[in-house]
Design brief:
It contains ten helices and no strands. With 223 residues, it is mainly alpha-helical. The chain has a domain at 81-221: Orthogonal Bundle (Tetracycline Repressor, domain 2), CATH 1.10.357. Helix 1 (22-45) crosses helix 6 (127-134), helix 4 (73-98) packs parallel to helix 7 and helix 5 (105-121) runs antiparallel to helix 8.
Length: 223
């Protein structure tokens, strides 16, 4: 073919998603900042007492800028709750994967309780407590969507509690025990002070001993 008549082939499009621009990546970072700051303020001050001006100031934005990312303060609250539950599901899954696959139900319960305390009380733990505090501040439809995430989070607990019940180690009725366990663990956000209270490992051991009748041979891995 004559070079003068050659037509340049169109450039191939890269496979996969197009790379985000710097502006798009910055938008994602700003959104994450807003969620973290909103979660912290909602937890400390409450949803009603926190203004969008407070949230904007916490991330160095103008007072109206949060509405670029979220239509309303209520939408921001809902996003905080969603982020908290999705993160909790992922962190719990990692905790169970880290536990030995052949671990007995006592050890698996211990892993679940320790992970739950970390989600509620550890660093960056404002998200799920906000959902516990502000559940009635979102719409009924939003509560239904959050309940689905909550169900996904709680699902891995059921087979562990069932195994403990079959072994005669679970204190009380299975259904009631599950509700009481979550109630007791969640209430810790009201009184726990990481500067003064016990380490989360100590807290985990106390909770496990409260919920199940652990045989002496299995406590703390003793032979």
């Amino acid at each position: 073919m004559d070079a003068s008549s050659a037509v340049a082939a169109p450039a191939k499009r890269p496979r996969g998603r197009p790379r985000k621009t710097l502006a798009e990546r910055d938008d994602g970072n700003r959104r994450s900042e807003l969620l973290r700051s909103a979660a912290r303020l909602f937890r400390r001050k409450g949803f009603d007492a926190t203004s969008t001006r407070d949230i904007a100031a916490a991330v160095g934005m103008r007072s109206g800028s949060p509405f670029y990312h979220f239509k309303t303060k209520g939408a921001l609250l809902y996003a905080v709750m969603q982020e908290g539950m999705r993160s909790a599901i992922g962190r719990q899954r990692q905790a169970l994967e880290a536990a030995a696959p052949v671990a007995d139900p006592v050890e698996r319960l211990r892993a679940l309780v320790r992970s739950h305390f970390q989600i509620l009380l550890g660093p960056g733990s404002d998200f799920v407590p906000v959902m516990l505090y502000e559940w009635r501040s979102v719409s009924a439809r939003q509560r239904m969507a959050l309940a689905e995430l909550q169900g996904e989070y709680e699902a891995p607990w059921l087979p562990v509690l069932q195994a403990l019940a079959r072994a005669g180690l679970l204190r009380g009725d299975l259904k009631l025990a599950r509700l009481l366990i979550f109630g007791a663990l969640n209430w810790s956000v009201q009184w726990f002070d990481r500067r003064q209270a016990a380490h989360l490992d100590d807290l985990t051991e106390a909770a496990v001993a409260l919920f199940i009748a652990v045989p002496p041979a299995t406590r703390n891995g003793a032979p």
